[in-house]
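Subject: complex prediction, re-run

Hi both,

The earlier run crashed halfway through, so I resubmitted it with identical inputs.
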Amino acid sequence: MTGRHARTRQQMAITERELTAMTGELDMLHKETFPSVAKSLDEFTANLSHLRTSRHTARRSFLAGVGGAVVVGTIAACSSSSATGSGGTNYTGDLKVVALAAALENLAVTAYAGALTMAGQGKLGKVPPSIAAFVKTAMGQHKDHSAAWNGVLKQAKLKPITGAPLTITAGEVAKLHKAKSVADVAKLALSLENAAASTYTFATENVSSAGGIMTAATIQPVETMHAAILSFVLGEYPVPTAFIGTGAAVHPAALTV
Amino acid sequence: MHFSIDDRHFRGLMTESDDLQSDAMRAATADLGAYVDAATESRYEERRELRYGGALLGAGALGLGALAFANPAMAASSKNVMALQTAASIENLAVLAYQTALTLPYIGGSSANEVVKAFCTKTMAQHKEHGKAFNAAAKKLGGKVQTKPNPKYTPIVTAAVPKIKGPLDVVGLAITLEDVAAQTYVNNVGLVSTPDLRALFASVAGVESQHKAILLAVHALLKGGAPQLIALPPKAAKLPAAAGSVGFPNAFYPTKLASPAAEGAVK
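This time it finished cleanly. Structure:
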């Protein structure tokens, strides 16, 4: 057997055998992890009366949205959608952050699902198997995150967030539709993942409920991991900073419901 | 062994990353001041409450009553310091582990994959920054600086080093250390008593998990016998499907392996 054949066979071996094994491992790990998250969410919902009436838990007015900032960070700067703001929102206090988180997760799901559709239509060129696997797995995890946050809203007798009612959504979807390649989609996904990670970092500081803090804390590293792999695929250094900042965070005032 | 790497592109990225790192460090240094101020303020408030509590309880009841009042506040304060010291001990161990790994020919020497070598070098530097940040916070809160590596995991790493046979073992060990660090910091977000310390732990947890994600992908490629695919930029078309998803195995980051706050506290 030539070296080239041997290498091809080895590559095929990870594609087929390891992927199957790893997919099984992923499901198992997910099942192992979810009970502890469910516990955090239970703690979160156990204190719903407090969450409903929480007026000002943020030292930096994160929830109040004062200071004229609608959205902070790079996405806000790029967004061309009109800001309807969040006046008269049904979601207040920590629950506003929960609704924001659910909307951000749904936006990520929308972006990844849209990318898969465009790939299926041949609009992105040839999609490498590793990218397809990334999109499917990351999208599944964002769905899990959204379901977790919406579970809290349901417990609070509030309407779950369907779709992505955010001031930034139209702009992000427009960017997706303009994408011509896998790299274009990866860049968009990277900015969404960074925004989500940044928002959750900010949430750990500004949410008052212990369950909410821990839920944000357990989701934030998953978004940063998505970002690292996306950066790697794009040929960028995958861990560019020693600290995850809050500069790209999406403000709760970006929520339009 | 031949590795595919666009040297000029990679050097450019490292420079870019250093610029970002400098920006992040400036922000982190400013934030660290805020973290510490808030934690100090919280400590001051706790002391003040303690004084009021003592006065209200009166001389007769001061003994047991004051202790009962004081313990939760003091415990919260000392728990913050202990959590920071334990975090610093984990960072110290990570720095030592990467330092040791970089002395191995296939990680930091002539037969090393340049991407892996650069990643280890940069990651070690980031762990040093984390250690400095945790120690600075502990010190300003009145605690001692933790200069030693973590007491639980150091003997495990020391015992593992002589058994290392190649890059796969090194990467496996690094994954464990990064995972312990990330799980500990995620858990600490729920343990510490001030918003700023929560943000500090979260901001570092996100970075350790990124280290882990990349190491998991590298591990899968090494294990699959495809080290030539570890390159930056990668040849995406040639990467096996698994490389796209193996880096993030959980939808929610676990905390089962989290080190208790007191594990690496200075005694």
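Residues 1-16, 53-61, 64-87 of chain A have pLDDT under 50 and may be disordered.

- K.
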